[in-house]
Amino acid sequence: MITFDSSKCIRCGICSEVCPVQIIDQEGDTLPSISEELYSMCRRCGHCEVYCPTGAVSSGYDGIYPDMRADLPHFLEPQEIRDHLISRRTCRVFSERPVERKTLEDILGTVRYAPSGSNRQPVRWIILEGREKVAQVTCKVAEWMARIAEKDPENPMASFFGKAARAYQEGNDPITRKAPNIILSIVPADNPWAQADSIIALSWFELLCQSYGIGTCWLGLVRMPAREDPSILDHLYIPEGYELGFTMGFGYSKYSIRSIPKRNKPDITWI
Ligand SMILES: Cc1cc2nc3c(=O)[nH]c(=O)nc-3n(C[C@H](O)[C@H](O)[C@H](O)COP(=O)(O)O)c2cc1C
Ligand code: SF4
Ligand code: SF4
Helix (H, G, I), strand (E, B), or coil: what is residue 136? Predict the structure, then answer.
């Protein structure tokens, strides 16, 4: 339930203007209101509350405010965020140092502010802690790859999978890069935006990890097999109605970068 405090409200109409589903009525000197039958359309986005210049809006829906700093907006300087983004690199060599749960809880506490389609916030997380649990997944993926290479030679990835499976047998790990942990995003299978939401959330996760010295590696070579053959992740008890979003290895980086590599120029069409 969203309420509007008559004594604080200056009838500016901003809450009504910013509401993405336009359910707030406010005209002239009237106090804003939302009619009973329109409440179900509310996305719980909080825009009415945070754009209100006088603090007259109270959002009564479920949720938790940020817990680590004052909820005043704070923006990085363009140079700061640019430097952070271009310094991100995929990590494929990890140290043994374990990542504390508290650190991950702090990071995921921030990730919950990532955008999501209709603000449904559909992403849930499964975290595999420690090499042993990661190795279990790696082994199942390697077996799957070996099977495809043998039984489905027409598959365009067959020779690559065969090579990866052999490398794994020889003690290398091109699949999970010997990452000490894996984070999996899981999303409701019937939400058409949720796969995109999951990628956005993991991108935030990755960029936040960087500030803690934690390296990350998108594990397409786990995600693709696991989506082809869901039994690979059977032991993780993905809830009914949910499916895998993406998989990312992480752990403290063994090495630090010393410079920034080249990338293509942006390809922009101006119309
Ligand atoms: C969707 C996606 C899947 C990826 N899968 C893997 C993977 O399975 N193994 C791996 O080592 N790197 C993987 N990567 C990392 C890319 O290879 C890496 O981002 C790219 O080479 C650029 O390097 P940079 O991230 O250091 O800028 C993946 C990246 C993305 C975005
Ligand atoms: S929370 Fe968002 S969707 Fe709901 S009334 Fe406020 S602005 Fe509109
Ligand atoms: S934004 Fe705040 S002050 Fe302005 S009309 Fe809405 S509740 Fe009133």
Answer: helix
